[in-house]
């Protein structure tokens, strides 16, 4: 199929499917919370099938309660891919809710909107996230606060964890006893059945000054993609003293998982020492993460764009 014809076909199918399901999901949000939670998962599986995305998952999602999934962020395509793996909602910046069409879809997927400019709004967001998790929802936090070129994990922004792990003086602190966190990495590894090289991965990534419409059009023209996701071991949120501990722990693990995915290896789900551990092994991992983070931060200042979520 000609590339442009392929893109037109995918877009036509996407809009027909989306326009049909928007009123259905709107009704489910009012009348059936359980179906409102699961319909986006069904919808995004069909979207990924339309685009031609093949997803491989290493690890398992915690089943007993809701999970805070802390992930890296590469592209707008992360949203349908992660939503196709499990019923999830996303932590999004407040502005996303005002965007035409995209904002409608974000609200219908029950995104949690964060106002980064108002510190007084953090407590309300914290309570909403914890309530969602306790109700069994899975919530995704893109902890870099921006998207990368797909070859590395950018430094995690500890401020983004304030809405998920409240400080001791914040209303809602101490109410996270049943909540778990799982580090998660996503990597785009193949195109037309062939491995993506380091030079080719930015083709999938949406970052820097790229326009969404132009990037989406070129990606839809390009053909089938393979993506791998690594889900780490669940850890109780109470294991972390504060947001900095949580950010440090998840950044180390997501970096490890991402590196393994790009080597086409199974990352493994063996839990590393917890956030209070002082073993040399964990200290070395944290040191390596910060060292690579400094290099990534330099690139981020040159090329990163504000994330649509997280």
Q: Can you walk through the features of this model?
A:
Helix 2 (33-51) packs across helix 3 (78-85). This protein has one domain: Glycerol-3-phosphate (1)-acyltransferase. The chain contains 8 helices and 9 strands. Strands 1, 2, 3, 4, 5, 6, 7, 8 and 9 form a 9-stranded mixed beta sheet that branches. The protein is α/β, with parallel strands linked by helices and 310 residues long.
Low-confidence parts? 168-174, 269-304, 306-310
Which CATH architecture? 3-Layer(aba) Sandwich
What is the CA-CA span between the terminal residues? Answer: 36 Å
| Range of helix content | 40-55%
What's the number of helices? Answer: 8
Total individual domains: 1
Strand content: 5-15%
Name its key features.
310 residues; Glycerol-3-phosphate (1)-acyltransferase; globular; disordered C terminus
Short précis:
The protein is of the alpha/beta class. The protein contains 8 helices and 9 strands.
Question: What layout of secondary structure does this protein have?
Answer:
Elements: H1 3-31, H2 33-51, E1 53-58, E2 67-71, H3 78-85, E3 89-93, H4 102-108, E4 112-114, H5 122-134, E5 139-142, E6 180-191, E7 194-195, H6 212-222, E8 225-231, E9 235-236, H7 243-262, H8 280-303
Parallel strand pairs: 1-8, 2-5, 2-6, 3-4, 3-5
Antiparallel strand pairs: 6-7, 6-8, 6-9
Helix pairs in contact: 1-2, 1-6, 2-3, 7-8
